[in-house]
Amino acid sequence: MKFYVGGEELTPENPESIEKFSPLTGKLLYRFPSATRKEANNAIDSAHEALKDGQAKTSKDRNSYLIKAYNLIRERRIQLEEIIVNENGKPLSEAKAEVDGVIDQLWYYIGFERKINGEIIEGDTELRRFCS
């Protein structure tokens, strides 16, 4: 069993795994590697570095990721709906509404990129700044 940190495939130090069962059927859905504290901290550090890299990109570059996510979710919506039903025990109608909500939000933020004028509104921390 493998996991990824910073785009690199790693073999976990801990041989144990975490199991996810369907609340509907009780069937085993997935088995995940159980990371050590050190591996979890490395993943957190890697995520912080990725955040810095993302902040350095232009809004147009970041928007291209939203467009890619939007297209992938639309293409794979049936698979995602099935995952939501199996993992959460939700009815299919709720799973469809959840996927529709994600698609709608992505579409909104894809369009929002054109409205950015470069004014930075400071937040209470460096990570909570807004560019309008």
UniProtKB/TrEMBL annotation:
What EC number(s) would the UniProt record show? 1.-.-.-
The signal peptide stretch is: none
* Keyword presence, Acetylation: no
Q: Which InterPro entries match?
A: Ald_DH/histidinol_DH, Ald_DH_N, Aldehyde_DH_dom, Aldehyde_DH_Superfamily
Q: Does the keyword Oxidoreductase apply?
A: yes
| Pfam families documented for this protein | Aldedh
Question: What keywords does the record list, in alphabetical order?
Answer: Oxidoreductase
GO MF annotations for this entry?
Answer: oxidoreductase activity
Q: Tell me the enzyme class.
A: oxidoreductase
Give the SUPFAM superfamilies listed for this entry: ALDH-like
Where's the Aldehyde dehydrogenase domain? 14-124
PANTHER family per UniProt: SUCCINATE-SEMIALDEHYDE DEHYDROGENASE, MITOCHONDRIAL
Under which name does UniProt file this protein?
A: Aldehyde dehydrogenase domain protein
Identify the taxonomic lineage of the organism of origin: unclassified sequences, metagenomes, ecological metagenomes
